[in-house]
Specification:
With about 190 residues, the protein is mostly helical. The chain contains seven helices and no strands. The two termini are about 15 Å apart. Keywords: Cell membrane, Membrane, Transmembrane, Transmembrane helix, Transport. Belongs to the BioY family.
């Protein structure tokens, strides 16, 4: 990694942390609140690619481990890893990686803007919704003992908001791709 990569990883970690300043919205039927930080995870993947996006998320998780209150609601520390949100938190890593990998594979400079936008959206949904929910639902089940059907049904409430986040991430990634591409070129 060069200095530029380190700066980008740090910048996107800071974006994820900044999105944590927005207060969480608790839901009564599942012990996981709605937060804006998953938008930062999607942004890191679609703009930086798999490796740098996952490293940005890993940096945020490291900050949580050392006890900094960087999660939505001012949470941090090792206690976070015993809460129902642990699956979503740890799921940020594969979510950013998959989002970035799909972006790198399916978005290129020869495509038109609509195709790039669509591919960024698909990548954000695949990584930032499908992969993240798989990890999150598993975490809820393990920590709370909820059966799969209830954990899955409770997670459905997040889908509309996360689709909006995927759209925002796709629009941002397309704008960056058009003006100053940061996504690694596929080989």
């Amino acid at each position: 990694m060069n200095t530029r990569d380190l700066v980008l990883v740090s910048l996107f970690a800071a974006i994820i942390v900044a999105l944590g300043l927005l207060p969480p919205i608790p839901l009564g039927f599942i012990p996981v609140p709605i937060t804006a930080q998953s938008l930062g995870v999607m942004l890191a993947g679609v703009i930086l690619g798999a490796k740098r996006g996952a490293l940005a998320v890993a940096l945020v998780i490291l900050l949580v481990i050392v006890g900094l209150p960087v999660l939505s609601g001012g949470r941090g520390g090792l206690g976070v890893f015993s809460q129902p949100t642990v699956g979503f938190l740890l799921g940020w890593l594969p979510a950013a990686f998959v989002t970035g990998l799909l972006s790198q594979r399916f978005v290129n400079s020869t495509q038109g803007s609509v195709a790039q936008l669509a591919n960024f959206f698909i990548a954000a949904v695949a990584g930032g919704v499908v992969v993240l929910y798989a990890c999150g639902i598993l975490g809820v089940m393990l920590v709370t003992g909820l059966p799969f059907a209830k954990a899955f049904a409770g997670s459905l409430a997040f889908i509309p908001g996360d689709l909006v986040k995927a759209g925002v991430a796709a629009l941002a990634a397309r704008a960056v791709q058009a003006g100053y591409p940061l996504l690694p070129v596929r080989r």
